[in-house]
Structure formats: C-alpha cells, structure tokens
Amino acid sequence: MEHTPTTRSRITAAAAVSALALALPGLVAQAPAAATPDRHDWTTLTTTAARTDGPLEGFIPFAPEPGSELEAADPDFPYQLEWFYLPVDAVVVGEDRYDWSRFEVWLDSVADRGHQSALRFYLDYPGRETGVPDYLLGPDGISQDRRYDFYDNNGISFSPDYDDPRVVELLTGFIAELGERYDGDPRIGYVTAGLIGFWGESHTYPVEGEVDPVNNPEGVSWMPSTQTQARIWQAWDDAMDETWVQARYPNELTAQHDLGYHDDSWAYATLPTTDWHFLGRMERAGESENWKHAPVGGELYPPLQTCIFSEPLSCPGAEGEIAAGRDYDVDGALEASHATWIINHRAWTVGYEGEDRQRALAAHARLGYDLAATQTRTVVDARRSVAEVSVRVTNRGVAPFAYDWPAELSLLDRDGRELSTVVADVDLTEILPGSTVEITAELPLPTRWRGLSMTTALHVPNPMAGGAPVRFANETQDSHAEGYLSLDKVTAADCLSPCTMTRR
Questions:
Q1: Domain end among 366, 390, 407
Q2: Distance CA 331, CA 333 (A)
Q3: For an engineered disulfide with 262, which of 297, 331, 335, 442 has Cβ 3.0 to 4.6 Å away?
Q4: What is the pLDDT of residue 19?
Q5: Can you tell me the distance from the alpha carbon of 81 to that of 348, in angstroms, rounded to the nearest whole number?
Q6: For the segment 331-351, what is each residue's pLDDT rounded down to a tens digit?
Q7: Which residue has the higher pLDDT, 350 or 19?
Q8: Are residues 351 and 376 in the same domain?
C-alpha cells in the first residue's frame, strides 16, 4: 500500500484511539473509514479473431469514378479505405492558379460511402495524357522530348525534366497549396508523395543512368538531381504536419523527414533478400524501425493478386521468380514490413473462392493494428459523484494505429445513450504490437444516478462524419450501442458512499 500523507494521518489517528481504549476501560476502538473506495478485481473480457472492418487499414480497392459504383465480383469483401490517382493538371489550371473542385468530388464520393482515401498526384502516367498543366506546354513551355514507348505508353505521355526550374516551382507550389487546404482533412487517410517518375512512383526505370540496349542505349537518367529531390521532400515536410505522407523509396533524403513509406511491389520484392528490395532499402536508409511511428502502405504486386493465396501456389512462373530472388510471400511480407494498408484491387474485381478467399480475408485482417480489450474494472465514489473506469487494451497486430484519434470512456444508459463521456489520456499510435496500455478516466455520474442501470463503454470515433469508428476485437463490441465496446453493465441501486458498482 502506498502511504500518502492522508493515509499516514489516518493510521496515526487509529493508533491514538487504540492507545486511549487501553487506558480508559469502556472506550471501544473503531476502525477508521476507508480512505479510498473498495475496488473491483479486474474482469476478463472475451476477445475474438482480428476484425476486418477497421478504418485506415487492410486490403483496399481503387475507388470507382465519382457517381459510379465499384464493379465487383465480390462486393462483400470488406474495406474502409479507397485508392485513387489524379493528374496535377486536374487542380493546377494556370500559373499559381488552382481549382480543387475535381479533387473535392473524388474525396466526397469516397467519403459518402463512409470510407477514407489514400491517394496520389502524378505528372507522368504511362498510357495516359500528361498531367503537366497547360501553361507549361506549348511553344514556350517545357521540353516534351522525353516521350517513350515502354510500359505500353507508345509516346502518349512524356517524362518532364524535373530539374527545370519551372517544374520545380510547379511542384513545390502545388505541395504547399495542398497542405494549406487539406493537411488534417479527415477524409484523407494517406497521401503517397507521387509527382516524380512513372505513375508518380519516384522512379524512371529503365532510364536511370544504366545502359539498356532497347530503352536506354545511352545510359541517361531522367530522375531529378539530388538537390531537386531535397527541395521537394522539404516541401512535403513543410506542408503536411497532420496527414501522413508516404514515400516510395527510402533513402538518405527521405530519412531526414517524418515520412511513412509505401511498397508498390509488396510480397514480390519486399523482403531484404537483396539490397534493392523494399526492406533492403529501408535497412540501408536506417529506417528499419520507422514503422513504429509512421505507417507503411503499398500495393500487392498486381500479377500476384489473384494467385498468391492459392495452395499450392498457382502464379504462372512462380518457381522461376522465387529462384530469382522474388518473394511470393504474403506472410513474410506482413510480418517484416509491418504494413497497414495494401492495394489489392482484384480481391474485388476478380474475387477469390473457397479457401483462397479465407486466406485472403485472414491476410486482410492481419494488416495494420488489431486492438482488443482484455480486462476492465469500474469503481464508483459516490461522495465525489464519479465513476472510475479502467480498461486494458492490447495490440495483436503488426503495426500501431496511424493517427492519434481520441479514445473516449462513457457511461451509457439502458438505451445506449451517453450519460457522460470523457476523452482518455492515451495515444493510440503508441500501442505497439505486443504491448498493452491501461486506459483510465473518471466519469461524472448523472444527477439522479441511484437506481439507474448503466453500462461503461470504450469508443474511438472517426473524425470524418460517417466514417467507421475503431472497433475492438471483443464479443461485446457494438452489443449495447453502435461503435461502442461495452465493458461493465452496472447498477448503483443500493450503492452507499463510498461503494463499488456491482455487475448485473
């Protein structure tokens, strides 16, 4: 027992009464009143398998065009996050002139389904018209000489000279405006940095300085200089303080900023079996532990999406690819990359059957966080008209939750309405895999609380209107009120002061 000044004074007073009782016959020593309320023992909560409906995590599809629906062979495969691309010229309509209406339509279209967006802007997407704004095209515009035929582009798009000062000003100005308007927007889950390279994936392979007899016979590089890349990463850092920005390739420049990462060849070139694989690059950049505070996203390598969950493995050429050092390993990629979200569009458009679907759902559930409440207790101090509610939460997943959303402890009435709610002092992003935190708050009791049946509950609301709350892997999730984890169903009908609420 911790001896505070209050308890010491009570113990001293009790000793004095006992001494006086011995000195004066007939005086009965009486035990002092308890200094603190009696407490429940911790109650164990029943957990379940990992959930498949968590916001900001799991496998995700490409968002359909606004106004249309996802054409899915398996519409019941769950998801809470959607992916989309936009060209820069969808927003930049002139020099230092911006029109965000098209971007707004996309964000709202996804949000109307109760989902958040992961997204990227690009200048060069093979097979699509350039995303360079019109004011930089034309006779006095930037060079369009870098047209190419590979990646089925057939000369449609071109790779701009990223070191051209006009391109640098375009990109840094655009990033600043994006941050000014959308940093912290609850409709946005993640922004992948994009802008540079094919598909905005920060590479111009095979035109990166090495000789390719067909596609790059002179061994030139279309990538921006180190100085230009440094300016662009600094622009992202300056623009975004709340919304996560994720980089494709970790290196000495990205490591200087607070960025997440995305692996767009996930489960194909992820494991550090060679230095150019995603985790090999992470190690070389000193970013192997970055996942503990910044989210990892990416895309399941498209040719693997429909075949990698088959047993035996049914991917064409898999044996040769594995022998050549490719991964073909979802379980290994899950554990080693600590990924939170992964694009797997064909899970919906093509779908899986039977045991393949069950394995895909299991992998979907394992991505990101997996929060479960393990124990709870509730104590009432009637003299102060408060209930102290505590709950222990563990993370069974592979990554922490990406954002510091408020965790609320509540007293609910029998109809699930809030009687009182307090935001607990806990940061969900700090609950690392395998760790447990204790969340505690004192909740004010309603004025007429005696005889009232109440339920204590834990709630992590989504800051986006209509967005899914964080749900816990427990049997009593949503059992008393939608979005709330019920902890103790309690009554104070016969409660004295001080007292412990009794479970019914």
A1: 366
A2: 5
A3: 297
A4: 34
A5: 13
A6: 999 999 999 999 999 999 999
A7: 350
A8: no
CA-to-CA distance for 501 and 40, rounded, in angstroms?
8
Rg (CA), the chain: 29
Taking the C-alpha atoms of residue 390 and residue 500, their distance in angstroms, rounded to an integer, is 13
Burial bucket for residue 225 (CB in 10 Å: 0-12, 13-18, 19+): exposed
CA–CA dist 32, 142 (Å, integer): 86
pTM across the whole model: 0.89
Q: How far, in Å, are 9, 69, 349, 351, 352 from residue 75 at the CA level? A: 67, 10, 8, 9, 11
3-state secondary structure of 122: strand
Per-residue tokens: 156: 């449609």
Q: Tokens standing for 400?
A: 């922490």
Distance CA 75, CA 69 (A): 10
Does a structural domain hold residue 298?
yes
pLDDT higher at 447 or 443: 443
Tell me the per-residue pLDDT of 28-62, one tens digit each, with 9 for 90 and over. 222 233 334 444 589 999 999 999 999 999 999 99
Provide the strand spans (E) within 267-331.
296-300
The contacts of residue 439 (CB under 8 Å, 6+ apart) are 390, 391, 392, 393, 407, 409, 424, 426, 458
User: Would you say residue 8 lies in a domain?
Assistant: no
In this structure, what CATH number is given to the domain that contains residue 330? Answer: 3.20.20
SS (H, E, C) 340-363: CEEECCHHHHCCCCHHHHHHHHHH
Q: Are both 406 and 333 inside the same structural domain?
A: no
Question: Taking a C-beta distance cutoff of 8 angstroms, is the pair 232, 169 a contact?
Answer: no
Give the model confidence (pLDDT) of 302-336 as tens digits: 999 999 999 999 999 999 999 989 999 999 999 99
